[in-house]
Design goal:
heterodimer, A: about 550 residues, alpha+beta, seven-stranded mixed sheet, 16 helices
């Protein structure tokens, strides 16, 4: 009896020891999604979690290399744009199969594009392809050739196909049949998602070995970033796609080997003054906010270096303008570097008729200059930034009050009532091409935040931006497009409708167990090359797996 | 002196000390609560900054002292307002009964059923943006006082009800006393211990509510400190682990809340 009991005890101990190993095998890459994927249909993707799943499972005709920012052939071996820029012809790889074994042909491309471009589908990805009046035509003249003709030229057309995961026209599994490196094998809503290696994936490494190397990717759905970090520290996760500056800094102090700073990201923090004539603000405020010298002076009085050093602990760079320097092609290097010059700010204000008396800035009529900056509550970073801007502006005599509002109230004020003086928010840039920002720059755009939905441009410089943005959107020459958007960036730097503050670094964490990780600034930062990642066997990797 | 009395005396002394330090903040520190020492963010305690600095380099001692002033002056004011409203309407409902009692209790139940947080978020959204931090903080505590009466009202109503058919009130009515005189001169003195207990209970409740509101971005506005805004810094657990002196506002809040609870029975007994 005693022997049996010891036997049982030994088995129990063995089972307990084996449990964590079974939970995470050596061939399983484990990380978190920060929300529930709303859809697995690649055409309907509209959220970050679904986008990440689409990236890992979807096969695309053209892939944007996240590191070089260059376009690379994927399911299409080559492609040609027609001279008028309206048609694109894809030459497809032959002999490929979806994850369920259905053959891949040009019919699948035609099926996907028809579905994507059908207005009834309401595809956010499809919206980017819309150009001119009329509908696009999609043809599959042969099994390995697909031709798509648009009613009008679409600028930066090829790059848009990076977001188009090809669906099978014939598979009974519909969107669950994929051409990407992985397919969804298990999904428990609110808990996890398991992706398995697609046995029919077309890509091979330089030695001819089929990709991907890792058999399984387990994605836990975890909204709480602190818990995610804690699990990474315990070795339960292999990577964290985005960390905030404080988390990254603490992790770097604990174990510098696991932290990876991919460099300055595309996202910017910015603030703007409400210049809308319909805003229920006193006329004197409207006059200040519409004065270019006032906006430029405020920009000059903000110490961006301090913001980067104190709020972002050095993991950010002062922002030049709407395009981050990490956007290699579209950034205008001729833009002046952002300066901190309170004396210069006061000189500009004096030129515009303001007076600095006894520590208070007064306008021409003797009104003390004061305004309220709103930002979203619960965002500690923005609250810190606002407090620092408050002190910076007090040095040129401007009294700024900071008010934090819950997000729905803030959006209500920004878009409907327009009842606010200035707003501090972040600009999330997921796309390199300026076409994705058309609604921000066109004066008629609803995201033209400082004065949205204008019937006709309120100022000559807004009219010029409208003209340049429309011209670049219809131009087929990348060089011409770049020249026009460079000018837009220059106008924005001169007029400061948005006062750009900082570009945050892209901060990630990767376990030493993961080999081949090379975080990039574009989404998905830490696992963009998931198909070439490898996992070291557990004993080699130390504490963090 | 018994251990209980000693503890009460100690609690009272601690409360007085904290209260006095808030009132004399300007004497105890020569730093402004808003001044940012940008070369020393998140600095450890030193001779220059005895409690260190916060993430923006602001002196934590100065912020704690001025925050104490805001929280400890306004929370009792809000508690007083809530208790007065509860006393008045609870007394009327308890004494008069009938439709008035039903109406007041229904109003109290309705208020209790309202999610206070969402009411405050909605109120903040309705307030004009260009109000000064001082007005904002006064408005916050005023709102807390106005909305914080229903729980106390039920207690006061239950106490007042006991006197509805009492002999001394029958005599007062027979003697021709007006309803207001009956309420203020005859009933209120008897309700005083209940009202005082409610007042003392409400103070820590309002301090903690303000702390919650500040953590949600409502209430006290930057750069004005309060215990709530100071506690907001504790949201970041990683930062707290690295800078444990950030816990000082939490320790003061715990000490004050416990002290307020400890001196409460003493008051009741005294009456």
């Amino acid at each position: 009896m005693r022997a049996l009991r010891s036997h049982l005890l030994a088995w129990l101990v063995l089972l307990l020891c084996a449990a964590p190993l079974a939970a995470q095998s050596a061939e399983e890459l484990h990380f978190c999604l920060h929300g529930e994927p709303k859809t697995f249909d690649p055409v309907l993707v509209d959220d970050e979690a679904s986008e990440n799943v689409r990236y890992l499972t979807g096969g695309v005709l053209i892939r944007l290399n996240r590191q070089t920012q260059a376009l690379e052939p994927a399911l299409a071996t080559s492609w040609e744009l027609s001279k008028d820029g309206r048609a694109i012809t894809f030459h497809l790889r032959k002999g490929l199969y979806f994850s369920d074994g259905t053959p891949f042909t040009a019919e699948d491309v035609a099926f996907t594009m028809r579905r994507l471009l059908d207005p009834q589908t309401h595809s956010p990805t499809g919206d980017a392809f819309r150009s001119g009046e009329g509908s696009a035509s999609v043809e599959a003249p042969t099994a390995d050739r697909a031709v798509i003709t648009f009613p009008a030229p679409v600028a930066g057309l090829e790059r848009l196909f990076d977001q188009v995961a090809i669906l099978s026209a014939h598979s009974p599994k519909k969107e669950m049949a994929v051409l990407g490196a992985y397919y969804v094998s298990d999904y428990k809503p609110g808990a996890y998602l398991v992706l398995r290696r697609n046995p029919n994936y077309w890509k091979r490494d330089s030695t001819g070995r089929p990709l991907p190397y890792i058999e399984v990717i387990r994605l836990d759905i975890q909204r709480n970033r602190e818990i995610e970090l804690m699990r990474f520290r315990r070795g339960e996760l292999d990577l964290i796609n985005r960390l905030d500056a404080e988390q990254f800094d603490h992790l770097r102090r604990e174990n510098p080997a696991v932290t990876r700073n991919a460099g300055t990201g595309l996202d910017a923090e910015e603030f703007w003054f409400n210049q809308s004539p319909a805003a229920p603000l006193p006329d004197i405020k409207k006059e200040w906010f519409r004065t270019t010298e006032f906006r430029r002076a405020v920009s000059l009085a903000i110490n961006r270096e301090d913001l980067c050093r104190i709020v972002f602990l050095g993991y950010a760079k002062p922002a030049f303008g709407p395009v981050s320097p990490s956007n290699q092609f579209w950034f205008n290097p001729a833009l002046p570097a952002p300066k901190y010059d309170p004396q210069g700010a006061l000189r500009l204000l004096e030129q515009a008729g303001f007076r600095f008396q006894n520590g208070v800035l007064k306008d021409r009529a003797g009104n003390p200059v004061a305004f309220t900056l709103v930002t979203n509550s619960g965002n500690a970073v923005r609250e810190k930034m606002a407090a620092m801007i408050q002190q910076d502006l007090s040095q040129i005599g401007i009294r700024m009050t900071v008010v934090t509002l819950d997000f729905p109230s803030l959006i209500e004020r920004m878009t409907r009532t327009l009842d606010y003086d200035a707003c501090l928010l972040g600009l999330v840039n997921t796309d390199l091409d300026p076409n994705s920002q058309m609604t921000v720059w066109l004066s008629s755009g609803e995201n033209h935040q400082w004065n949205p939905n204008q019937k006709s441009p309120a100022t000559p410089w807004e009219a010029e931006i409208d003209k340049l943005m429309r011209e670049q959107a219809s131009s087929l020459s990348e060089k011409q497009r770049k020249a026009k958007f460079d000018r837009v960036q220059q106008i924005v730097a001169e007029q400061q409708p948005f006062i750009y503050l900082v570009n945050k670094d892209v901060l990630t964490a990767v376990s030493p167990a993961v080999v081949g990780a090379a975080p990039a600034v574009l989404n998905p930062q830490a696992f963009w090359n998931a198909e070439t990642l490898r996992l070291k066997p557990a004993p080699e990797s130390g504490a963090l797996r | 002196m018994s251990a209980k009395k000693l503890l009460r005396a100690f609690s009272a002394a601690l409360l007085c000390a904290v209260f006095a330090s808030g009132v004399c903040a300007g004497i105890l520190t020569h730093y402004s609560y808003s001044r940012q020492f940008r070369e020393a963010p998140s600095a450890a305690p030193s001779a220059q900054h005895p409690l260190g600095t916060d993430h923006l380099g602001r002196d934590l001692l100065a912020r704690l002292l001025y925050g104490t002033r805001v929280s400890l002056l306004l929370a009792p004011a809000a508690a007083l307002l809530a208790t007065l409203i509860a006393g008045l309407f609870g007394g009327i409902a308890g004494l008069w009964g009938g439709w008035m009692e039903k109406a007041i209790l229904a109003a109290a139940d309705l208020s209790l059923g309202l999610p206070l947080l969402f009411v405050l978020i909605a109120l903040r959204a309705l307030l004009p943006l260009d109000i000064s931090p001082v007005i904002s903080v006064v408005a916050t505590f005023l709102t807390l006082g106005i909305l914080g009466w229903p729980a106390s009202l039920r207690v006061v109503w239950a106490a007042a009800r006991r006197y509805r058919n009492s002999d001394f009130l029958l005599l007062a009515r027979a003697g021709g006393c007006s309803p207001s005189r009956i309420l203020l001169r005859h009933v209120m003195p008897n309700l005083l211990p209940v009202l005082l207990a409610q007042f003392w209970i409400s103070i820590p409740l309002f301090i903690l509510t303000e702390a919650t509101l500040s953590m949600l971005g409502l209430g006290v506005m930057e750069p004005l400190p309060s215990w709530g805004t100071l506690l907001k810094g504790l949201e970041d657990l990683t930062a707290v682990r690295a800078n444990p002196w950030m816990l000082s506002p939490l320790l003061v809040l715990i000490a004050v809340v416990i002290s307020l609870q400890l001196i409460l029975p003493a008051r009741e007994e005294a009456l």
